[in-house]
UniProtKB/TrEMBL annotation:
ATP-cone domain span: 1-82
Region (Disordered) location: 1-30
Descriptive protein name: ATP cone domain-containing protein
Keywords: ATP-binding, Nucleotide-binding
Keyword Lipid biosynthesis: no
Domain of life: Bacteria
């Protein structure tokens, strides 16, 4: 049996890969078996990856909202688009959660030209220049030209003092963060030049997926009990993380829903951030 990817390419269906992705939702082995059995009866040759995802999502949600929320992380990151503005906000919030002060969309003068830095973050004597590469395409890959280009930008802003958050520091490191995949050449180039690359599945033990699952820094778009318009309204109000709703439930008063629905959303949010996964 074959599965049709977003690009139209047909690839062999791998049951073990599906089981693994289901288990990464936090579902128990018995629950994974149950979901797999329900999905198996609806599979057919040439089924699209989107339909397969929707089947898995539906059955995981019937088990527990938080399973479906974790399973939907990749889509939830794409939902921070379409331009990637909120992806940059989310990346900044991730660094803030790790103790950094961070700000988005900064113009700075390099040795040769000016640069717009997506996220500037500082902690102690560190000053990080962070490039965010957002992609809407499910199977998108970042080619080697991107880390090459970014490295040249980091070189141009090196050895210059910049003032952020009342501190005057030189850029200590650059980070390239993407919700997409990296090509083999991108990884080779990054590793050779000791670049900080963070992608959906890279580095293997500390990828974007693994990092979010372990520290609970899920975007608000993960919540399955929220509609698309409500997610957009919350993002506009700077409610970017699921943790924001847990810490300040008053955010939910901004959307027109019943008290019962608010309770359901809050329960899902608490369950999602309070039960980290090990990768």
């Amino acid at each position: 049996m074959h599965v049709k990817k977003h690009s139209g390419e047909l690839v062999p269906f791998r049951p073990d890969s599906l089981r693994h992705s289901l288990s990464r939702s936090g579902a128990s082995p018995d629950e994974v078996d149950g979901v797999f059995e329900r999905i198996k009866d609806k599979l057919y040759d040439g089924i699209s990856t989107r339909e397969l995802y929707e089947l898995a999502f539906e059955y995981l949600k019937s088990c527990r909202d938080t399973y479906a929320a974790r399973y939907s992380l990749k889509k939830a990151l794409r939902d921070l688009g379409p331009e990637g503005f909120y992806f940059e906000k989310w990346v900044a919030r991730m660094f803030q959660e790790d103790g950094y002060q961070a700000v988005t969309g900064q113009i700075i003068q390099g040795h040769a030209v000016t640069h717009e830095i997506d996220v500037v973050a500082t902690k102690g004597q560190e000053l990080l220049a962070i490039e965010c590469k957002f992609r809407n395409d499910v199977d998108a890959k970042i080619s080697v030209t991107t880390p090459m280009y970014f490295m040249s930008r980091v070189v141009d802003i090196s050895d210059i003092k910049y003032t952020f958050f009342d501190k005057s520091l030189k850029v200590s490191a650059g980070w390239l963060v993407t919700n997409a995949y990296l090509t083999t050449d991108s990884i080779k180039f990054g590793e050779y030049h000791k670049m900080n690359l963070l992608a959906w599945d890279y580095p293997r033990e500390a990828s974007l997926k693994a990092r979010v699952d372990s520290n609970g820094q899920y975007p608000i778009t993960c919540l399955t009990s929220l509609g698309a318009q409500d997610k957009a309204r919350l993002l506009k109000a700077q409610c970017v993380l699921v943790k924001d709703v847990v810490r300040n439930p008053k955010f939910l008063q901004m959307i027109e829903i019943s008290n019962e629905k608010r309770k359901q959303i809050l329960e899902e949010a608490i369950g999602l951030v309070n039960s980290p996964l090990e990768h």
